[in-house]
Every structure is written in structure tokens, then in C-alpha cells.
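Sequence and structure are kept together here, with a separate record for every protein. A complete record is shown below as an example:
=====
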Amino acid sequence: MEISNPHDAFFKEIFSRKENAVDFICSTLPEDLKNNLDLSSLELDNNSYIDEELKENFSDIVYNCLYRGKSRIKISLLFEHKSYVVNYPHLQILRYMLKIWQTNIKQKEGLVPIIPIVFYHGKERWLLRELSSYFEGIDEILRRFLPGFDYLLTDLSGYSDEDLKERIFLNLSLRIFCLLMKNIFDEEKLKGHLGEFLEVGKIYYEEEKGLRFLEGVIRYIYNSTEIKPEEVIEIAKRISARGGEVAMTTAVRLRDEGLQQGLQQGLQQGLQQGIYSKATETAKSMFRKGFSLEIIAEITGLPEEDLKRLINEKD
């Protein structure tokens, strides 16, 4: 999976950590299922079972686990990264499960039961339905010819911010992750409440792993919103002195790494092809992101005078 999708990257970063996966499972799975899982046996499966068709909508994190102390199962976290409700999700999930079972067969293993969990953070509510409900005129006689399986759903739109801050999860990183994911498409709200959300992890930022998590948070905000790095730095400084240092260092690194490569290429292409309106908009976009003229010039190799003209050019 390419890191070009910051939602995917942040999801993988969080759920690749076993402690977050355990907290998520304990907080969201039905009791009868959870009570039969040996979570001490939980082990990350480094394979992805997403094929070319499925990756249009999903990415996955898979864990192996013992059920009732002896049966091996897979727990698959399927992240719906386009952030809208999928039509006929059962068909896509079934395709995914078949991919895992085909792998079992190729490796001459027994077929492994799969618990699919869809993680969704779009604005529209996801309606959890049975597969048979998509068929008109179905009765019990015909129903037995349909594949029957369930999937679990975590729809962040169904939780309040207060639930996510205080009541659902134990891990501070998981709380903040869900708060950001839930509100990432409402930039005005996110900007207004960002300090409140980051405050949840105030104690966590005193640890090295907490500071590494904060770096991932800043990277996610930087690549997913138009919130200026300077604003995030100021918020982080108010919460934690060390957090403020990490925020500043991360913002500088992001600029220096040139993670806005698409913007840079657009600027060069615009100048080369004489598409001044496109080049102007790109330069302004980079400037709004907090890039200085000096850094833009250094990365692109374009004269600062040209950049000044583009940025100051009237729309």
C-alpha cells in the first residue's frame, strides 16, 4: 500500500501495535466472542490479503489468535479508506475471506476461521444489514442457497467525542486516533477542538513512545488538512514542552523531506507548459502550507523572483 493515502498510513501505524489491537478488540467485540479469545496469543500477520479490486476500498491489518486455547483464527481489521458506505459490503468481504482461504490451501493448511471487522470513519452512517436483505422476494427455501456470515462494524459516526475521549478505549493513542479519524472531514471543528483532543494524551507525551505517536499525529494532520503547522506547534507547546519540540521538529522535517511532491511537480509543470493559473494556485498552496519561498526555491530549483510573482499574482 502506498503512503500517498494518509488515512491508510495512520491506520496501519496505530493497529500494527499489538497493545492497540488488544484494546480495540476488548472494547468493541461481543462478549461471547471476546471471552473465547486468548489475546495473549495475538500475533500480527505481516501479510495483506487485499487484491487489486479490493484495494479500491479497503486496506487490512490481520492478527492471528487462538480461540478457546487451541483453534487458530484470523482477526482482520478492514479499513474502509474511501470514507463512504460501500454497496454490498458482504460481497467484498466474501472475496477477501476467499483470498485468505485460497492462501490456506496453497500452503497446505487447514482452512482458518476469519473474524472480519470493518473500521469506518465517513460522515454517512453505515447500515449493518444481512446479506439476504439485498435480495427481493427471498424466503426460507431460497435463503439456504445464500452464503451466510456476519461481519463486525466499528462506525465512528455512531460515537460521540466524549465517548471516544473517556469511555470506549483505555489506550490514549487509540482515543486520539479515533477522535482525529472521526473529525478529519470537518476541518473547522477539528481545528477548534484539536487542543482538546491532543490534551487527552498529555501524560503520554512524557514517554518516548508517546512522542513518537505525536509525530505520527502531526504527520497525519499535515497531510490530511489545511491546518497550518504553526497552529499545531502552538497547540502542542501549550500541552507539553517536549511535545512542542517534537511538533516543531516534525514540521521542519516534513518540509525538508518534500512530502508535498505533487505540489512541487505541479508548479514545475505549470511553468514549463505556460499554464500560469495552475502554477500560481500550486505555489500559493505550498505557501499556505507553511513553505517559505527559500525552501520552495531550493526544492524546485526555481528562482525566488518567479515564485514571488506567482504567489502575489491576482486571481
